[in-house]
Amino acid sequence: MNWLDHIKWDAQGLVPVIAQEQGSKDVLMFAWMNREALQLTADQGRAVYFSRSRNKLWFKGEESGHIQLVHDIRLDCDNDVILLSVTQTGHDPGIACHTGRHSCFFQRWQTGPDGGQWLSTEPVLQDPALIYKKTP
Prior knowledge:
four-stranded mixed sheet
């Protein structure tokens, strides 16, 4: 049996993936992989995801230069979620989020007298307009 056959792929042939920073253990982002993306990630040692919006493989950092070097690939107990241990490159500290922040999980819910609100807990480290190529 191929190692990829152990994974419970969804109806679209995808599996959810969490990228966690190796050193800090910060959860950097959530994405999806298909079989090809996971095989390439394992073969190349860098994160390759599947973009559902673009319907194609997405080599993390292909536009921004913020590549994720993969140290460890883990599968959860139900065989339906992948956890990557990564080093985020291209900026110090690493930028994983397309908003120019370290982590995509930068919004925290805070309750208050008016019900509550989402607060941004991380600064923008680099302006996204300077990170990504403009497409015509």
